[in-house]
Design a protein that fits this description.
By secondary structure, this protein is α/β, with parallel strands linked by helices. Helix content is 34%, strand content 20%. It has helices at 12-20, 39-42, 56-66, 73-92, 125-138, 183-186, 224-231, 263-267, 287-301, 315-321, 323-331, 388-405, 415-419, 429-455, and strands spanning 2-8, 27-31, 47-48, 118-119, 143-147, 150-157, 160-167, 173-176, 179-181, 193-203, 236-237, 242-249, 271-273, 306-309, 341-350, 353-355, 367-369, 374-375. The chain is globular, with a radius of gyration of 22 Å. Bound molecules: flavin-adenine dinucleotide (FAD). The site of flavin-adenine dinucleotide has 41 residues, from helix 1, strand 2, helix 2, helix 5 and strand 6.
Length: 456
């Protein structure tokens, strides 16, 4: 089958890229799970924006400081400068953000921020944004959405990407403009594995939390795009920069996914206590430093969690701003307005990834990477809270613009390569998945070891 642009992943980055690509290009978007099951839907706290020009230096400095000044300053500047236009665009798609009584945007604050500059929609900002993007994409006549279809590899020769190989299943659903279409009508064959020829391929496969026992990410997000990049010798960056979130709900019952207690709860006044219900740290430290403090305290106390006290926010603020978190605590047997809840650090975000330039181009021709899968250096060693949705969409938009600007006669084609692909190595799904997991984890370990050696 042939398409102009193949996008793997339908979180905010994949969807935003699709919306910004030219309407005369045929686009195929794959999703390993259903259309709503991605981390973009889980984002709670909000999205940073440049409040006004006077906040630029301070926002820039907060991002650099949280990233231990290992960030690429040019990417940070692009992200901040693009934030207002992105916000207007999202509002145009119908996304709604909290407002003050006079109609102006209400800004919240999270750890590492020296000011209130985060727009939010209750504690379900990611769902609010991504569901509107999805709605808009569903209206596009040039886009086909394919659920429960996994990209198992990219197709490349001489460092140029010519598309990818997809695994379909009984659950695969294909739709165009909300109408379900048969695989044959969509141009697919009847085989489980199919090669898709594409002029451009965009990897938007999200994070790597599924590789960890305790993570806030969906379990199916296992760094597939990254594994493909490793296999094809595509350049990576900051591969061992993995963010642990200091506060996720602690449960003795092993949960499927660790439930996040958003940083903005602390931004609005929640406190952390040790086993004696005494404060032990500054709750607004950047994530990596606070995680270290929490872990130190747990080791000192011999406990498996610390306590978070949301009572300082008051019942009204809790119910209006954080209804989702309050409901989860209630489900777990805690009344967040009346008592402390147990919290523990868990894997949360991946700062590293496939190395990309300012337009999200990878080191391989005709291949782009966006969102959490990509690394353009914006976050440095540690992401500042609520910079991820923003970064994902800003640089997905830039990828779309770069693709749109590419002259037709510069696009390399290779139908012969597509025809002669051997599907043998992809037939055993479990073995392939295990190989991909090992590839990514080994690469992270290798980078850790190199860093340790450097620091000795
Ligand atoms: C609990 C939680 C709270 C968060 N809160 C915030 C916040 O408040 N503010 C903020 O800025 N950021 C937040 N983040 C981070 C942010 O949500 C993510 O970094 C961002 O949404 C990533 O978007 P994405 O498009 O890269 O990936 P995702 O939204 O995760 O989408 C990945 C997509 O790739 C698909 N996929 C994966 N592998 C394959 C494959 N092999 N083939 C086909 N499809 C594949 C998946 O099915 C999915 O559709 C939070 C994250 C979590 C987990």
């Amino acid at each position: 089958m042939k398409t102009d642009i193949l996008i793997a992943g339908c979180g905010c980055s994949g969807l935003y890229a699709a919306l910004k690509l030219p309407r005369d290009k045929q686009i195929l978007i794959l999703s390993k799970s259903n259309l709503e099951k991605n981390d973009s839907y889980l984002a709670q706290g909000g999205m940073c924006v440049l409040k006004d020009e006077s906040d630029f230096d301070s926002y820039f400095e907060d991002t650099m400081k949280a990233g231990h000044y290992e960030n690429d300053p040019r990417t940070v500047e692009i992200m901040i400068r693009s934030s207002r236009a992105l916000l207007d665009d999202l509002i145009g798609y119908g996304a709604d953000f909290a407002r003050n009584e006079d109609g102006s945007l209400d800004y919240t604050r999270e750890g590492g921020h020296s000011d209130h500059r985060i727009v939010y929609h209750k504690d379900v900002t990611g769902k609010e944004i991504t569901s509107h993007l999805l709605e808009a994409v569903k209206k596009l006549p040039n886009v086909k959405l394919v659920q429960y279809a996994t990209l198992v590899d990219i197709i490349s020769e001489n460092n140029t990407c010519y598309g990818g190989i997809v695994r379909k299943s009984q659950r695969t659903v294909i739709s165009s403009q909300t109408v379900e279409i048969s695989p044959a009508d969509a141009g697919f064959n009847e085989e489980e594995l199919e090669a898709i020829e594409a002029d451009f391929t965009i990897l938007a496969t999200g994070g790597i939390g599924g590789l960890y026992r305790h993570s806030t990410n969906y379990r199916h997000l296992t760094g597939d795009g990254l594994a493909m990049a490793i296999r094809h010798g595509i350049q990576l960056r900051d591969i061992n920069y993995v963010q642990i979130h200091p506060t996720t709900f602690y449960s003795e019952v092993p949960e499927h996914r660790s439930f996040l207690i958003s940083e903005s709860v602390r931004g609005e006044g929640a406190l952390l206590y040790d086993k004696n219900m005494q404060r032990f740290t500054n709750e607004l430290l950047p994530r990596d430093l606070l995680t270290a403090e929490v872990k130190k305290q747990m080791a000192k106390d011999g406990t498996e969690h610390v306590w978070e006290d949301m009572r300082p926010l008051g019942q009204r603020e809790l119910e209006e701003h954080f209804p989702n978190i309050v409901a989860h605590c209630a489900e777990m047997g805690y009344d967040a307005g009346k008592e402390c809840i147990p919290v523990v650090p868990a894997q949360h975000y991946f700062m590293g990834g496939i190395r990309v330039g300012y337009d999200s181009e990878t080191s391989m021709g005709q291949l782009y990477a966006v969102g959490e899968t990509a690394c353009n250096g914006v976050h440095g060693r540690n992401r500042l809270a609520s910079n991820s949705l923003l970064e994902s969409m800003v640089f997905a938009g830039r990828a779309a613009e770069a693709i749109a600007a590419c002259p037709q006669d510069k696009i390399k084609k290779n139908p012969e390569l597509i025809r002669k692909i051997d599907m043998g190595p992809y037939r055993d799904a479990e073995a392939l998945e295990a190989t991909y997991r090992r590839l990514v984890l080994d690469e992270i370990k290798k980078a850790d070891m190199q860093e340790e050696k450097k620091n000795v």
